Amino acid sequence: MALRNHSTITEFILLGLSVDSHIQVLLFVLFLGIYLLTIMRNLLMLLVIRVDSQLHTPMYFFLSHLSFVDFCFSTAIVPRLLENLLSQRKTISVEACLAQVFFLFDFGGTEVCLLSAMAYDRYAAICYPLVYGQVMNNQLYMQLVWGSWSLGFLDALINIPLIINLDFCEAKTIHHYSCELPSLFPLSCSDVSINLTVLVCSTLLHGFGTFFLIFISYVHIVSTILSISSTASRSKAFSTCSSHLTAVSFFYGSTFLRHLMPTSGSRLELIFSIQYGVVTPLVNPFIYSLKNKEVKNALRRTLGKFLQSTGSKL
Residue 310: what pLDDT? Predict the structure, then answer.
């Protein structure tokens, strides 16, 4: 059945981040710069991993997909935010709003699965270094990556069709800069108990499930590292996990805090949303390149090859 047959309204109002026009201009410049940096950093990470043969390992295969997910996740949020900051009419159609919710579920679900797969990769590398190549073989890491994409899509596919069947009434103001599923429930004059139940169950299974897998992986990792007698070896082992732990802390921390809070449009709620939806895709490439010598060396080699090829053409 068509969406318009279920909805008494055709658009929502996104209140955004500020009603002050001068602040909106400053925010537009800020978020435009963040978005451009996010695109460049993640595409550069994809390029470096693609062209440098020394990075053709399971860990960097996961990282390349994480960079692509971050690119998509940011693109699902920031362009609409930028449009909202410049527009006089802060509206979004019901269809566009639900599409944004779908992609946020899809890319967000894929990201948590990839972070979980990367934790397992670190577990295999540190706890079973002698048989790492057999444990993390080509077939397994391909299955983990495509399984992550499939689970993210399935999570969106479970939640979004249910909300399409809701009736949205006159209260159509969303106290946010983007469409997120919890923000839509108060706008419906239909019974949302089934939607809430499905959302809670999928969040527990998907969000807390992947977090539990990461936690268990790091319990074994820390136990193995602490059993190493050499201080230098322990430090090296910890350093291989520091980038991933930082990325997990950024994304999971802000996501859990945002979705455990009641939907109210408070400043704190918006800050947490910006952290996992805008800031995390920006800083992930920086985290992995700053704390990883292999990535930094690959960046230098790629830049050197580019400058060499450019110089030869000139």
Answer: 62
Total-model pTM: 0.87
Tokens for 22, please give them. Answer: 């001068």
Residue among 157, 24, 152 at smallest CA distance from 85: 24
**In this structure, are residues 77 and 104 in contact, taking their beta carbons and an 8 Å threshold?**
yes
* Coil/strand/helix, residue 18: coil
Rounded distance between C-alpha atoms, residue 71 and residue 39, angstroms: 6
CA angle 33, 263, 247 (to 5 degrees): 45
Amino acid at 217: S
The C-alpha atoms of residue 121 and residue 133 are separated, in whole angstroms, by: 11
Cβ neighbors of 54 (< 8 A, separation 6 or more) are 294, 297, 298
Which residues make beta-bridge pairs with 12? 92
Q: CA 153, CA 142: separation in Å to the nearest integer?
A: 17
Around Cβ 285, how many Cβ atoms within 10 Å? 25
Residue-level pLDDT at 36: 96
95 Rama sector, left if φ>0, alpha if ψ -120 to 50, beta otherwise: alpha
Q: How much of the chain is in helix, strand and coil states, percent to nearest 5?
A: 80, 5, 15
In sequence order, what DSSP letters do the residues of 170-232 get, joined into one string?
Answer: S--EESSSS--HHHHGGGBSS--HHHHHHHHHHIIIIIIHHHHHHHHHHHHHHHHHHT---HH
Residue 108: how many other CB atoms lie within 10 Å = 23
Quickly count: other Cβ atoms within 10 Å of residue 254's Cβ.
Answer: 19
Q: Which residue ranges in the chain fall short of pLDDT 50?
A: 1-7
Tokens describing residue 248: 């997990």
Distance of CA 121 to the CA centre of its chain: 19
How far from chain centre, in Å, is Cα 251? 7
Using CB atoms within 10 Å of the CB of residue 9, give its burial: 0 to 12 exposed, 13 to 18 middle, 19+ buried. Answer: middle
Q: What angle do CA 159, 162, 166 make, to 5 degrees?
A: 135
What's the farthest any 2 CA atoms get from each other in the chain? Answer: 68
> Where do we find the tokens 């400058």?
307
